[in-house]
Amino acid sequence: MSNHDYSTIRSQKVADIIHLPAHLVIDWLKTQRGFMGEAIAKACYQELARRQ
């Protein structure tokens, strides 16, 4: 992951991160604490539920 990718993801709101390429978000999450992964998972779940 480039510094540009890292900075881009870091500047996003959680609700916007779910719309970024998954491989970038996964790489970024590897450097974050557990609560961030939980927040992203919850946002993904809510977006999927909203679309149904």
Our estimate of the beta-strand percent is under 5%
Mean pLDDT: 91
Strand count, sense and barrel status of the largest sheet are: none
Rg over CA atoms = 11 Å
Helix tally equals 4
Listing every helix as H and every strand as E from the N terminus to the C terminus, the arrangement reads: HHHH
Q: Name the structural class.
A: mainly alpha
Q: Rough shape?
A: globular
Number of strands: 0
Span of the ends, CA to CA = 33 Å
Helix content: over 70%
Spans of at least 5 consecutive residues with low confidence = none
Main traits of this protein?
52 residues, 73% helix
Task: Give a brief outline of the structure.
This protein has 52 residues and is mainly α. Helix content is 73%, strand content 0%. The mean pLDDT is 91.
